[in-house]
Amino acid sequence: MATYKISDEAARHLAELWDYIKEQSSDEETADRFVDGLFATFDTLANFGQNPCLSSQASTRLSSRQLHDFLPQGGRGC
Fold it and tell me: Who has greater pLDDT, 28 or 71?
């Protein structure tokens, strides 16, 4: 499993985002779910380069909009 580091500035932005969502929704669970979803995405992106299903050519030309086209669907593998 790949690792990543959140910068101090990014951590502050995430905390501010959590505060804003809580304030707007009056619900800590909503803010928690949103930020948890961001961290789940960070985990996916950190592990992206380790995916054996990707060809080196696809991974070097990949844009964020094309990401879903190269990931295995439904956990079926390559």
Answer: 28
CB atoms within 10 A of CB 35: 15
Q: Residue 64 gets which letter from DSSP?
A: G
62: pLDDT strictly greater than 80 = no
pLDDT surpassing 90 at residue 19 = yes
DSSP-assigned letter for residue 74: T
- The set of long-range contacts for 67-71, using a CB threshold of 8 Å and a minimum separation of 24, is none
What CA–CA distance (Å, rounded) separates 26 from 29? 9
Entry field: residues in the chain: 78
Quick one: average pLDDT of 5-24? 94
Q: Can you read off the two tokens belonging to residue 16?
A: 């501010």
d(C-alpha 72, C-alpha 61), whole Å: 18
